[in-house]
Amino acid sequence: MILVTGGAGYIGSHTVKELLKARYEVVVVDDLSSGHREFVLTPHFVRTDIRDRQALTEVFQKFPITAVTHFAALTSVPESVAEPARYYEVNLWGTFNLLEVMRAFGVKLFVFSSSAAVYGDPEKIPIPEDHPTRPKSPYGRTKLMVEEILADYAKAYDFRYVSLRYFNAAGSDPDGEIGEWHEPERHLIPIVLEVAAGKRPYLEIYGTDYETPDGTGIRDYIHVSDLASAHVLALQYLERGGKSEVFNLGIGRGYSVREVVVICQRVTGREIPVREAPRRPGDPAVLVADPSKAMRELGWKPRFTELAPIVETAWTWLQKRQNLR
Ligand code: NAD
């Protein structure tokens, strides 16, 4: 049985769906601080905080866990700058807690949700895994510190891991069962679509004077179901005896904020008013992954290689969610 922490959240719930499709049994641990109970697609759910070692111990006592995919975390870069203590407590100490319970129960396989935030300002594009890591925020530092702990555990103990450095997760389950739902929403595509839906008056573009063709920031958007399938492959890789590794997950192609707006306008058929605003501190101009290592070594291949179909899944979900509420 696979333990998925944060399995009521955006990427975790999509991964649970892929794991169930691949015939794994899954137990979800989530404190529902930002996740949704109705996103938990497995019957096995324990509402608890990963900082609670006793509660985690009981989960490992109750379920025959053989591997862990670990999503539970606080995820906002600006919030981590304002409140670093919370980020170190949940993302770093909570993860350490989980690793220690795994060790006590002899559970040896771990898939970790890392982030492109470990790289900081890129020296070259696309970014390979051996690019220098100089995170610019406490959030990025928690991810890098966990990677360092994982490397030490793998050296010292009978323990193997895969760390997946996601670029920008986007889109929603093509079946419309689950999707992206954060409150407040901080990700570009759902915000743009909320403008299209008339829920927000306009989109603020942070920075129009970057050294990019249209002056706005460029990011690599990867469909959440492709991220989810990479987790299943990472788990199977570890189960086959694969050695501990770090992989980038992106589609290897960047879209500027203005390009995202144009594509969202085309997909929704709605006007999307924009306002130009100053750059936000800490935002690199361009972040695009070199995902070739994951493709080569995990056999991963994204189904969504263009932004428009990714936006279509996000738009279908947003419309469905609005009808639900
Ligand atoms: P999310 O907020 O939707 O999911 C996080 C889940 O963890 C939520 O269900 C939340 O309730 C749960 N959680 C938070 N703190 C917890 C705690 N102390 N104990 C138990 N559960 C807790 O976020 P997401 O976008 O799905 O991100 C999942 C993971 O992927 C995170 O580790 C995040 O840092 C990483 N990541 C996300 C992106 C992205 O583009 N969304 C990019 C890079 C990395």
Structural class: alpha/beta
Total helix count?
Answer: 10
Question: For the residues shown, what is the average pLDDT?
Answer: 96
- Which small compounds were modeled alongside the protein? nicotinamide-adenine-dinucleotide
Q: What fraction strand? A: 15-25%
Order of helices and strands: EHEEHEHHEHEEHEEEHEEHEEHH
Low-confidence stretches: none
Q: Which value, in Å, is the CA radius of gyration?
A: 19 Å
**Helix coverage percent:** 40-55%
* Number of E-type strands: 14
Strand order of the largest sheet: 3-2-1-4-5-6-11
| Quaternary structure of the protein | single chain
Distance between the termini: 34 Å
State the shape. Answer: globular
The largest pleated sheet is described as: 7 strands, parallel
Structure description:
This protein is of the alpha/beta class. About 40% of the residues lie in helices and about 15% in strands. It has 10 helices and 14 strands. The chain has a 7-stranded parallel sheet with strand order 3-2-1-4-5-6-11, sandwiched between helices. Helix 5 links the parallel strand 5 and strand 6. Helix 6 crosses helix 8. The longest helix has 21 residues. The radius of gyration is 19 Å and the shape is globular. The two termini are about 35 Å apart. The model has no long low-confidence stretch (mean pLDDT about 95). The structure holds nicotinamide-adenine-dinucleotide. The site of nicotinamide-adenine-dinucleotide (NAD) has 28 residues, from helix 1, helix 4, strand 5 and strand 7.
